[in-house]
Amino acid sequence: MVITYDASQQEDKVFLLDSAPHPAADAAEPFIVASDRRVILTYPIAESDFERFGPFDPDDDPFCAVLFADAVFHRLGPPGDADLAIHPLAAQGLSGYAVHEVVNSSLCAEIATVTTDSLAVGPEAPARRHFVITFQASMFECVASDYTIIGVFGAAEIASREAFALVR
Question: CA separation (Å) from 92 to 6, 34, 36, 75?
Fold first, then answer.
């Protein structure tokens, strides 16, 4: 199944989420651990967020782990920071090295038309939210019911261990 979306057909609105750490520029790449309905993204955080999410030791390389619950779509890939302007949401305020939520998302609307599982409809169905996190060489997009910051850890190895433990 290929899912695409056209932000010009909908009134996609991009908002910055300051509750999550900003991704670091020129740092290690993010990685994903996923199961059927859980996606955990880990990424290095910006030095400007060290004080807000720390304290950290001088030798630390802080990584954040974010859980996306009830995920029905996720991807990690282009465009990166240099080509961000080609993304359909760039005109709506998508910015580099930031965490965003897209309200009134055309991607969520498109997914709703092709999703037939029991979680997609009815009063028990979780609301679908569209999240975008931008990095130097890529961007992460996810449609899920919510996100939770699992933690901010002193190293990638610790963040990955926590991510793998939670996705089982």
Answer: 12, 29, 31, 20
Nearest CA to 74 out of 134, 130, 18 is that of 130
Domain ranges of the chain: 9-167
Structure tokens at 6: 């056209």
The answer to whether the beta carbons of residues 30 and 76 sit under 8 Å apart is yes
Q: Which tokens sit at 68?
A: 């996306």
In degrees rounded to 5, what are phi and psi of residue 161?
-60, -45
71-91 pLDDT per residue, tens: 999 999 999 989 999 999 999
What is the value of pTM for the model shown?
0.87
The encoded tokens of residue 54 equal 């720390």
